[in-house]
Amino acid sequence: MSTAKLLVPAAQYLRMSTEHQQYSLENQSTAIQTYAESSPIPTPREAV
């Protein structure tokens, strides 16, 4: 039996509900990317 871990693909889900929202889409993407790079999660791709 193999002990290799299965990597699950990740995706970024960015959302802006109002133009007065505190965090921009760019800030959300940067935070997700930073988290992914410091974890075993493969770097997520962004779909627009």
Summed up, what is this model?
With 48 residues, the chain is mainly α.
Sequence-ordered SSE layout with sheet pairings:
Layout: H1 25-37
Key traits:
48 residues, mainly alpha, 1 helix
Describe it:
- The radius of gyration is 14 Å and the shape is elongated.
- It has a domain at 22-48.
- Helices cover 27% and strands 0% of the residues.
- By secondary structure, the protein is mostly helical.
- The N and C termini lie far apart (39 Å).
Q: Structural class, please?
A: mainly alpha
Radius of gyration: 14 Å
Give the integer mean of the pLDDT values: 77
What series of H and E elements makes up the topology? H
Sequence stretches where pLDDT stays below 50 over 5 or more residues: none
Report the total helices.
1
